Amino acid sequence: MTEPTHDEAHGGALGQRLNWLRAAVLGANDGIVSTAGLVVGVAGATDDRSALLTAGLAGLLAGSMSMAAGEYVSVSTQRDSERAALALERRELREEPEAELEELTGLLEQRGMSREVAREAAEQLTERDALRAHARVELGIDPDELTNPWHAAWASFLSFTVGALLPLLAIVLPPPGLRLAVTVVSVLAALALTGWSSARLGAAKPRPAIVRNAVGGALAMGVTYAAGALLGAVGV
């Protein structure tokens, strides 16, 4: 019974790493789109470098802090639920060990084992570590690897910041006549990369994801630029 348990943990760890990678890619994508829309919108109203830098930095800090806070709250709620589920399982194992053994046997049967093999496996897993066995088989939780809200918050903060830096630098570093073109091209290229990455991580075809990302980013920049140009024209 040792080898399957090891494979299951390995698979779970791999899935967890892939989820973190997807979250990082999506966070960077959000940073690119939101900051690009902001700075391009401001660029539609003015070509003042300090105004563009101020707007971009404000958007970067606000977005990254919002992403981190939201992720912290979300993952904290998930971790609280996991702890509550483990506490309930621990109590049930203490008060109703036979019923829990029968439940574990039934769960293993549902995974394709015969009744006899499932019963023997359930007994061996229970003798080794009953809580861990129920947590993994029944709840899908690894008691040693509960979700960490601080890790999630920092990952979201950093990925959003990295993504947001691209349009911010692209709009303030080039000379005035090239700022908009450099920003649009670099943002679309970065969105194509994040679209390709997210598709690869999800084992999907990359072209639809790339097109969606690029069209969404282009639309966001076009709308905000039009709004900024209109506001700049009327002197708001």
What features would you describe in this structure?
The longest helix is centred in the first third of the chain and has 47 residues, at 49-95. This protein is mainly alpha-helical and 236 residues long. It is built from seven helices and no strands. The chain has one domain (2-233). Residues 1-12 have low confidence and may be disordered.
Topology (elements, then pairings):
Layout: H1 2-45, H2 49-95, H3 97-110, H4 115-139, H5 149-172, H6 179-201, H7 206-233
What's this model, at a glance?
The protein is mainly α and 236 residues long. The chain has seven helices and no strands.
Got a strand count? 0
- State the order of secondary-structure elements, H for helix, E for strand: HHHHHHH
Whole-number average pLDDT? 85
Distance between the amino and carboxyl termini? 71 Å
Poorly predicted regions are 1-12
- Gyration radius over CA: 25 Å
Q: What is the total number of structural domains?
A: 1
Which descriptors apply to this entry?
single chain, 236 residues, mainly alpha, 87% helix, disordered N terminus
